[in-house]
């Protein structure tokens, strides 16, 4: 059954217009009045609904029953990433959402080439949220991961709490299977292309991040992030 994110209050019997993106998708799928769809608003569970009216650019639906279905990972994992350039960050947000990440924190780091501030940063954050919402539609999640505002590296370290690891290119990191396992909430910190600088790696360790290594091969930032999430969320 087609699934759509709908940032609205959902209740049995409510009639509402779908957001523009969802409405376009319904039209592309050539759904008709009476067809059933699934809606979710990120607040838990999902709702059955039926198409009531198809306009030229809008779609009206009627909400029916709530289904208490959540497909969240048993563990809350935050991914803090020095933003990779171009479309790689988009791809990473999509795949991390599918794997079950709870929170993504994009960071400015010394080796990062993507620099965002002000209105441009806000637009990127909204763009990544939309990617996460679409990924949830596809993979069946009913809670959308939090996409944090772009943050400077030092400020992030100051706020980080709980169990945390840093994927490190320096010597002395423990094998990832030893540090990423468990059930407690976890923050995974990784640099951009080129990794964290030596100073940033040292700052992270001082802040309580356990140095971790994925193996002998050097992985792209987005590959390493997904490998770590796979181990942490297994």
UniProtKB/TrEMBL annotation:
This is Ribosomal RNA small subunit methyltransferase E. Specifically methylates the N3 position of the uracil ring of uridine 1498 (m3U1498) in 16S rRNA. Acts on the fully assembled 30S ribosomal subunit. It is found in: Cytoplasm. It is an enzyme of class 2 (transferase). NCBIfam families: PRK11713.1-5 (NF008692), RsmE family RNA methyltransferase (TIGR00046). Its main location: cytoplasm. It comes from Hydrogenophaga intermedia. GO terms for molecular function: rRNA (uridine-N3-)-methyltransferase activity. GO terms for cellular component: cytoplasm. Residues 73-231 form the Ribosomal RNA small subunit methyltransferase E methyltransferase domain. One of its GO terms (biological process) is rRNA base methylation. Residues 22-63 form the Ribosomal RNA small subunit methyltransferase E PUA-like domain. Belongs to the RNA methyltransferase RsmE family. It catalyses: uridine(1498) in 16S rRNA + S-adenosyl-L-methionine = N(3)-methyluridine(1498) in 16S rRNA + S-adenosyl-L-homocysteine + H(+). Keywords: Cytoplasm, Methyltransferase, rRNA processing, S-adenosyl-L-methionine, Transferase.
């Amino acid at each position: 059954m087609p699934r759509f994110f709908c940032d609205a209050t959902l209740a049995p019997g409510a009639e509402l217009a779908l957001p523009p993106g969802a409405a376009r998708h319904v039209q592309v799928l050539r759904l008709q009045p009476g067809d059933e769809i699934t809606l979710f608003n990120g607040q838990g569970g999902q709702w059955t609904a039926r198409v009531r009216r198809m306009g030229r650019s809008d779609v009206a639906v009627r909400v029916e029953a709530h289904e208490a279905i959540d497909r969240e990972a048993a563990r809350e994992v935050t991914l803090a990433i020095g933003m990779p350039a171009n479309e790689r960050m988009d791809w990473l947000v999509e795949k991390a959402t599918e794997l079950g990440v709870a929170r993504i924190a994009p960071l400015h780091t010394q080796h990062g080439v993507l620099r965002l501030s002000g209105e441009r940063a806000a637009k990127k954050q909204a763009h990544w949220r939309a990617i996460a919402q679409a990924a949830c539609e596809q993979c069946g999640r009913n809670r959308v991961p939090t996409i944090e505002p772009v943050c400077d590296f030092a400020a992030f370290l100051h706020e980080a709490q709980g169990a945390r690891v840093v994927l490190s290119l320096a010597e002395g990191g423990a094998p990832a299977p030893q540090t990423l396992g468990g059930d407690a909430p976890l923050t995974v910190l990784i640099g951009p292309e080129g990794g964290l600088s030596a100073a940033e790696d040292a700052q992270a360790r001082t802040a309580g991040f356990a140095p971790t290594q994925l193996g002998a091969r050097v992985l792209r930032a987005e590959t390493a992030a997904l490998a770590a999430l796979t181990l942490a969320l297994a």
